[in-house]
Design brief:
Elements (H helix, E strand, L loop, with lengths): L8 H4 L1 H15 L8 H38 L13 E12 L2 E11 L8 H5 L9 H11 L4 H12 L5 H11 L3 H7 L10 E12 L7 H8 L17 E12 L6 H4 L19 E8 L4 H15 L7 E5 L3 H14 L3 E5 L1 H12 L9 H14 L3 H14 L8 H12 L6 H7 L6 H12 L11 H15 L3 H16 L13
Parallel strand pairs: 3-6, 6-7
Antiparallel strand pairs: 1-2, 3-4, 4-5
Helix pairs in contact: 2-3, 5-6, 5-7, 6-7, 7-19, 11-12, 13-14, 13-16, 15-16, 18-19
Length: 508
C-alpha cells in the first residue's frame, strides 16, 4: 500500500494561527488606542473564544488523521459491545459536539459489521457523550441550574459559550448530571471521630409545587375535587398542588454543656455581663433529600451515612425532629432495625411556638407581659418540668374561666406537651451537651428547596425537581467537584462498552 501524506501540524492549526495573528494586529492598530477597557474585554472575549474553538477543532482534526492512518496501516481488531469483530473500515464519519468554546466537528473512523451498529473507537478514546453537548457544558448547566431558573441558566451559558444550547436541553443535562449521586455517596468513607463526639441526625419535610402529572395520587385526587368557590379558596381549603420532599441531615458535634439561662433569657431580660455558653457547633454536615423516594428510604439513607461514621455504634446518636408523628415512627423503626440506641429530642423552637399560642389566651395582643410569661414556662421546660408546665397552663386556663374558643391555644399546648413529654427532657440534653434545635435541617429546607425550587411561578416535573434538589445537596456538602469526576467515569462506562475501548488510543 502506498504511503499516505499526513498534513503537517502547522497546516491543521493554520486557521487558529491566522486568527491569533489577526487579533494581535487588531490590538496593534492605532485605532485600538481609543478603545475603552470594556470594549477591549468584549473583543478579547468574543475573538478569544473563537480562537479556542479553532484550536480545539484543529486538535480533533489531527487526531482524526492519525486515527485514519493507523487504521489503514495496522488494521486493528475492533470488537463491538457484543464481542463480535467488526472487520470493515469506513472513513469520513463525523458528528457535532457543542463545547464551552462553540460547536466543533469530530471526524472519526467507523468499523462495520452487517446487521450490527457501527463501532467508532475514537468515541471511547475521546469519551464523547451520547448527546451533542460536551461534559464541560453539562457541568456548566448543572452549576447554573442549581443557582437559578433553567431560563437563566441557558442565558448564562449562551452568554459565555455562544448559542450552543436550549432550555429543554439544559433540563435534560441537569437530570442526567444527578444520575450517580446515590452511588457516589454509597462509596464515600467519612472521616472518623472520637467516641465522645455527638452524631446528630435530623429530618424534615417541605412541599414543592408540582405539575399535575407529578403529584402523588391522593394529592391529584384532592386537586380534582371542586372547591366551595370557583375563584378562590375557602377557609381551611388547600390548593393541593404540592408534593412533599423529605430532607435529612447528618453531622458531627462536640458536646457543649449549657444551663437553661444560656438558652433563653429570664423574665425581664438579662442583667450583668455574664458570658453565655455556646451550643454545639455542627461540623462535617451531610445533606440529602428526595421528592421521588418515600420518606422511609430517605431516612434509611441518613442512617446509612450515620453508620458509615460510627459502624460499631460507640458514639452517642442524637435525633432532632419537629415532632411529626409519622416521621418519628419511621425514625424509631429504622433505629430498631439496626439495633442502635438513639436519643430523640424535639426542636425547642417548635415547642416555643406552642407556648406563644397559649400565651395569647391569657394576654391581649401586643402585651409585653406575654413575653415574660413564655420565658417563665420555657425555663421550666428547660429544667425538665414538662408535666408541671402543662399542669400550670391548664390550671391557669381553668382559673381564668376562659371560653372553649378562647382557651383553644392553651389546650392545644397542654396536649402537645403531655403527648410528647418523653422527647422533651431538655434538662438531660443540656447536661449532656446535646443540641436542642433543628436549625441545621431548617436551614437546609430553606437553602435546598425554598431558595431554588420555590421561586415564584415555578411548576416542577418530577425528574427536574429531584435532580436540582440532589445537586444542590451535593454542592452544599462541598462534594460537587469530587462527584463530577466520579459521574464522568460512570458516564464513560455507560456510554462506551466496547471490549477493546481500553486498548484503542488516539494521540496528538
Amino acid at each position: 500500500m502506498a504511503p499516505y501524506d499526513t498534513p503537517s501540524r502547522t497546516d491543521l492549526f493554520e486557521p487558529a494561527t491566522r486568527m491569533f495573528h489577526r487579533l494581535i494586529a487588531q490590538l496593534h492598530e492605532p485605532t485600538s488606542a481609543a478603545l475603552t477597557h470594556a470594549e477591549l474585554e468584549e473583543i478579547l472575549d468574543t475573538r478569544g473564544r473563537e480562537l479556542l474553538r479553532l484550536l480545539l477543532q484543529a486538535h480533533l482534526d489531527l487526531r482524526a488523521l492519525r486515527e485514519e492512518m493507523a487504521a489503514k496501516t495496522r488494521r486493528p481488531e475492533v470488537r463491538g459491545a457484543d464481542g463480535c469483530v467488526h472487520p470493515h473500515l469506513e472513513t469520513g464519519h463525523h458528528r457535532q459536539l457543542a463545547t464551552l468554546f462553540g460547536t466543533v466537528t469530530v471526524n472519526r473512523c467507523a468499523w462495520r459489521l452487517p446487521g450490527t451498529v457501527n463501532v467508532c473507537p475514537a468515541d471511547a478514546a475521546l469519551s464523547l457523550p451520547r448527546r451533542r453537548h460536551s461534559a464541560g457544558l453539562a457541568r456548566l448547566a448543572a452549576l447554573e441550574s442549581v443557582r437559578g431558573s433553567f431560563d437563566a441558566a441557558r442565558t448564562a451559558i449562551c452568554r459565555r459559550c455562544g448559542p450552543v444550547i436550549g432550555k429543554r436541553q439544559v433540563e435534560d443535562l441537569v437530570v442526567n448530571a444527578a444520575a450517580d449521586i446515590a452511588a457516589f455517596y454509597r462509596r464515600q468513607v467519612p472521616a472518623p471521630c472520637t467516641a465522645g463526639t455527638l452524631l446528630v441526625l435530623s429530618a424534615d419535610g417541605k412541599g414543592i409545587v408540582m405539575r399535575p402529572n407529578a403529584l402523588r395520587e391522593a394529592t391529584r385526587k384532592a386537586a380534582a375535587r371542586p372547591g366551595v368557590f370557583r375563584t378562590r379558596l375557602a377557609a381551611g381549603e388547600k390548593p393541593a398542588r404540592k408534593r412533599m420532599a423529605t430532607l435529612v441531615a447528618v453531622y458531627d458535634a462536640k458536646p457543649a454543656v449549657r444551663r437553661p439561662h444560656d438558652v433563653i433569657a429570664p423574665p425581664g431580660g438579662r442583667h450583668g455581663n455574664r458570658t453565655l455558653r455556646p451550643g454545639p457547633h455542627a461540623t462535617a454536615k451531610w445533606l440529602y433529600g428526595s421528592v421521588v423516594t418515600e420518606p422511609a428510604t430517605v431516612i434509611a439513607a441518613a442512617f446509612d451515612q450515620a453508620e458509615a461514621r460510627d459502624p460499631h455504634h460507640h458514639r452517642p446518636w442524637v435525633v432532632l425532629v419537629d415532632g411529626a408523628r409519622h416521621q418519628l415512627d419511621l425514625i424509631r423503626t429504622e433505629a430498631a432495625r439496626r439495633s442502635v440506641t438513639i436519643r430523640v429530642v424535639i426542636d425547642f423552637v417548635h415547642v416555643l411556638e406552642y407556648l406563644w399560642a397559649a400565651s395569647w389566651c391569657f394576654h391581649t395582643a401586643g402585651d409585653p407581659a406575654a413575653e415574660d410569661w413564655v420565658a417563665a414556662q420555657a425555663l421550666m421546660l428547660l429544667a425538665g418540668d414538662v408535666h408541671q408546665v402543662a399542669d400550670c397552663i391548664e390550671a391557669q386556663a381553668d382559673t381564668a374561666a376562659l371560653t372553649q374558643d378562647r382557651r383553644h391555644g392553651a389546650d392545644r399546648c397542654v396536649r402537645y406537651l403531655r403527648g410528647k413529654a418523653e422527647f422533651l427532657h431538655y434538662d438531660r440534653a443540656l447536661a449532656a451537651g446535646w443540641p436542642i434545635a433543628t436549625g441545621v435541617i431548617e436551614g437546609a429546607c430553606r437553602h435546598l428547596i425554598a431558595d431554588r425550587l420555590d421561586i415564584s411561578g415555578a411548576r416542577w416535573g418530577l425528574a427536574g425537581a429531584e435532580a436540582v434538589l440532589q445537586l444542590r445537596a451535593v454542592q452544599s456538602n462541598g462534594d460537587f467537584d469530587t462527584y463530577w469526576r466520579y459521574h464522568l467515569t460512570r458516564e464513560h462506562h455507560r456510554t462506551h462498552r466496547s471490549p477493546d475501548q481500553h486498548g484503542y488510543t488516539l494521540t496528538a
